[in-house]
Each structure stands twice: as structure tokens, then as C-alpha cells.
Here is the input.
Amino acid sequence: MNSKFAKKYRYLAYLLIAPSIIIVTTFLIYPSAQSLYLSFFRSTPFGNRQIFVGIENFQRLLTSPAYWNSLTRSLVFTAITVFISISSALILAVVTNKKIKGAKIYKSLLIWPFAFSFAFAGIIWGVLLHPNVGIMSYYIKLLTTLDFNWINNGTAAFTLIIIASSWRMLGYNFIFFIAALQNVSPELLEAADIDGASPVTKFWKITFPLISPITFFLLIMNTLQVFFLTFGVVDVLTQGGPARATDIVTYKLFRDAFLSMRTGYASAQSIILFVFVAIITIIQFKYAGEKVFYQ
Amino acid sequence: MKRKKSTTIFIHLFLIISVILVSFPIIYAFMVSTLNINEVYSSPPKLQFGDNMLNNYREAWQRSNMGKLLFNSAFISVVTAVGKIILSVSAAFAFVYFGDFPGKNILFILILITHMLPLPIRIVPTYQLMDNLGWLDTYYALTIPFFASATGVLLFRQFYMTVPESLLEASLIDGITPLRFLWSILIPLSKSNIVALFTIEFIWVWNQYLWPLVTTNSAQVRVVQIGLKMLIPSDAQPEWNVIMAALIIGVIPPLLVYLTLQKSLVEGFAMQQDK
Here is the structure.
């Protein structure tokens, strides 16, 4: 817009941005600042008084084996889930992108887990692998004599939430890869065909470099989503157990904040999570600059 | 170049197996929702459809007060998605077409920052804020705090930057106001972006779990996700057939939204990639 119009309608620009800014400051920035403030306090047993304790909450957290357990498990869980869901979505997207009959049907049938919540994904997989009623755990036991009992066994429970979350993320990643692959020019691939390039070479030399921005973007988004949303799976299935094997950071935060009412201690955990998000964001801006985001 | 026939067969085989692996959990959930309780707990577990489907769905509907759950989830999902679209279209329009007004960058960064502040980072104070506002157990808590969207602002901003500015200038000279321009020209042009955002946000809100868990308690505002959790008893044998029936009902709305808007969703994304 030229400067004459821009000046005349300047008030309108502010008016149009105002609603977003009001929501952001009231419900996101102000509460986040308060999380930081609360993290320096401890609430009395009945929650009626706040005592300033400095950095004691952080000291206790970072020297607490239970918290390190949560943190390590969350990071390992997130890394494995993100790796499985992105790599399998990419392979499936590349294969369905070939000119084959029924590609559309295959695509539709691979995306739909995306409509399920983490909690729903958790329930479905929890039943499939249930030690008493699950068809999968039954056949696993029959074929390998392995007892996949996520109710008693920590490793099994941890594996279960990885499977449920990976399944849920697969559809999400698949949508993005399909969209990205539509922009890889078929002529380029045909030219490579004529030069006798193998499918593997074509993938690594042409397709992958072209879709690497979206892959990087998905890596970031998946990390954040899996890290924060798996709460649903854990809450419906394991509630952090057995023996704290699935006590991921968000679940521990929830317990401390809303079941034990330790608001200061929980807020300190919020701040540690913020540090994690900040690191991810810095990596993102460093390597990708400003990209389009989706939740 | 023609592909070998054996390669094509191999590709189909690979895809069929993948589709079965991905879809099996959903089909199995549906199977369980048709069994009676003895069949659910029989050993070996049954991989078949039973004839108790109607009973299970009726039971699930009544026990969870499903009508109310569906209404609540649909209401907050539509309201939040529409709210996000309106706010982000307006803000993106202001950021692209009004030159360099003072504070523009700061305001833009403020909106982007939302990406760094997911709920767990501010859950205790946001909960207290809801309490102070008297918003606990109301639709307000489930919708209004989510109206701002960095995703949306970036999405529309990116798109508007590709629309030639001369289009706006010509309209202004013709005496068309900026808002009229936004409404009659830009919004129709960004239809597939709007639909893509609606799909993503609808499903996102429908599937939200942690926030409704902490801010709602009464059946009046309870959503599908929480209603389903409440069907799982902690101390007794869960009736998985009834729970799966409720789950299938609860996933139909987001699935329908996705299936109806699928085409625009992929287009909305694909267009985005071009830029």
C-alpha cells in the first residue's frame, strides 16, 4: 500500500491486530511470566499462603532422581517416537506418490489415524496389547513366549506409549510429505530415469534434498507435539506407572500441580519445559529461518 | 520409462501390508465394539464381529451421556476454529498491507511467541486465571484462550504476500475500503487455506485432553475425550466393548470433517510449499 493510504488506515491495522495481541498477552504471555514468578515460591500445605524460597524448587528438582527419571524417559520416548513416525511416513509417502493404481485409496487409508486423539490411540493400542483381552499380546505370547504385560511391566508400558504415539503421528506426517512430494517435479525424476539412476539414488539425490525443509519442519513439530501431547496416552492407560516407567514430564507436572497442589514445584517444572522449548526454537530458527508452522 | 511388472506387484504388496498395519487397530476397535462382554474376555481373544453392536452403542450412548459430549466437543471445536481463523486473517491482513507502522515487528513477534508457550509451560497460572475470571467449568475456558494462532497468522501472511499489491491499490482508488477488499477479494482467494486451517484446528480442539481435564468437572461442559476416560473404571474390569463403541462414536465427527475437507487440506498445504 502506498504511504498515503497506509497513513490513512493505520488505525485499522492496529485494530485488526489488537484481538490477537489481547489473547496472546492475557492467556499466554502473562501466565507464562507468572509461572516463572511462582517457581520461586512454595505453597503451604493447605495452599493458602506462598512462601518465597528462591531457587529451592529448582535445586530440589535437579537433584531429584524421580525428576531425572521423568526427563530422561520423556527425551528417549520422544526421540524414538519421532524417528519411527517420520521415517515410516516418509517411506509410505514416497511409495504412494508413484504412478500406481489406487494410489488415492492407499493415501486415504494411511492418513486416518490423524483424526484420533492421543488418548483414543492409547485406548485402542492398550486393548490390542492388553495382557487379558488383547489379540496382539495373545499372539506375541503364542509365537515368542514373550509376556507383553504393560500393566505390570515398565518396559512393556513404555513400548506401548511409543507404539500408540507413533501410530497417531504417522497420519499427520504423511499428510505433509504427500503435499511436499507434489511439488517435486516429475520431469526431474524422469530425466534421472533416462540417465539410468536407480530408485534409491533418485530418492537421495533428488527427492530428499527437495523435501528436506519439510522434513526438518516436521522434526521440530513432532518433537514438540510428542513431548507435550503424549499426556493423553499416559493418563488413560498407565498414569505414570508401572514403577514410574511412563512418568513423562507432563504427567509428573500434572500430578504435582493438580493432585498434590504443589504449585511452586510444578511451576519450576514448567520453566524447565520452557527451556526445552526454547532450545528447540533456537535450533529451528538457526537452521530454517522463518517457516510456516502448523500445530 | 516402464516399470517392471514385478516391481509394481511388490509396491502394491508393500502398500497393502502397510494399510492393514495402520488400519488394523481401528478395525479391531470396531470389532470389539460389536462383541458381548463374555466374548471380550474369552481366550483366545476373538477376531470377529459379534452381534451385540446395537446394545453396546446404546449402552455407551446412555452411560456417557454421549449426546451432550458430542454437542460440547463440536461446539468448542467450531467456535475455536472459527475464532482462530477470524483473528489470524485480520492480523495477517494488517501485517501485509499496511506498510511499516510503528511497533509492527514487536507485535508480530508477540504473536509468534505463542509457539514457545505450549500449555504445560503456563498451566498453573492459566488455571488460576480461569478460576479468578469465574471461567472454570464454562465454555469460555475451553475456547477464548485458544483464539490466537501463530500458525494461522503465518499461513495467511505467507499467502497474502503473493497477492499483488497493485490489486489493493487499484481497489482503493476505485473507492473500495480495505475491509471490503479483505472480505470480497482476499478471503475468497484464500479459501483453501481457510479450509485447511479449519480442518487442522477442528481436529486439534476436538482431541484436546489436558486442558478440559483440569478446567472442567461438570457434565454440562464435559467433552468427548474426558467422557470416554470416565468410562474406564480404575477398580473393576473395564467393559471394553462399550468403551470401544463410545470411542468409535467419538471419532466420527473429526473423521467426517477430515474426509469432507481432505482435498482442500492437501491443497492448502501444497500451495504453502510453493512459496
Remarks:
- The two ends of chain A are 31 Å apart (CA to CA).
- Chain A has one domain: 64-288.
- Chain A touches chain B through 103 residues (CB under 8 Å).
- The domain at 64-288 of chain A is CATH 1.10.3720.10 (MetI-like fold).
